[in-house]
Amino acid sequence: MNLHLISCVLVSILVTHGTCDSLFPLAHRVSLAVPLQYTDGFIGRAFLMDYTANQVEPGFRVALTAEANQGRYSCSLQVFLGDVMVWSSGHYSNFYTFDVCVLELTQDGDLQLKGPKDRVGWRTGTSRQGVERLQILRTGNLVLVDVLNRIKWQSFNFPTDVMLWGQGLDVSTWLTSFPRNSTSFYTFEIRHDRVALYLNSGKLKYSYWEFKPSKNRNITFVELGSKGLELLNDKHKKIAQIASWKVQPMRFLALGNRTGNLGL
């Protein structure tokens, strides 16, 4: 695999006001070159921000990434916990580009991924909402905030195949595996009476695992705590828990893209 990484120091040199702090300021722009010829396995990555709570556990890093994908290059914004990708703007829909991959937080507060001639391939849609900066929080939540630190957009509202500690999912959201070269994919879904895993194939849907609270109690949302996955009611009271058998605090829950296995 051809892996090309641009460190925080190098980005700071090449880009005006470049930083590997926990924030990305308004009217800031970073560009990542894309190879002229396609090279299978290529990954170009510029780490832009990080948040490390201590030196013992791995921290969160935010990267602008260009990578080879089925004969073309895709451009995405990604969040990593250590070396594990836990969120990507391209999880559901790839933005393909050539020549250049650009991340810009515009003057009016819209976060955008662009290609040549400023062609926009992905955006947060937060123009004129008072956005002041992009920031990575200690939970790994990537957020756009205003001058009063009010969140205007957050990656936690767009779950992928990973659920981080402190992140919640309600009955209208779910985790979805990457449908790599296939029409089949897995989902982890929250229903009022259960949480369940499904294999989705075309228009068909098969349940292969489920967990129900006792006494037919209704689930409003689930949240990943330090000891496992907590099932909560509409009063934010825990009604059940899928506990981890390990002593260490939970960092994330993941849905396996190849196996459909759900792991803490």
TrEMBL record:
Residues 27-157 form the Bulb-type lectin domain. The keyword Hydrolase does not apply. Residues 1-18 form the signal peptide. Gene3D superfamilies: Bulb-type lectin domain (2.90.10.10). InterPro entries: Bulb-type_lectin_dom, Bulb-type_lectin_dom_sf, G-type_lectin_kinases/EP1-like. It comes from the Eukaryota. Keywords: Disulfide bond, Glycoprotein, Signal. This is Bulb-type lectin domain-containing protein.
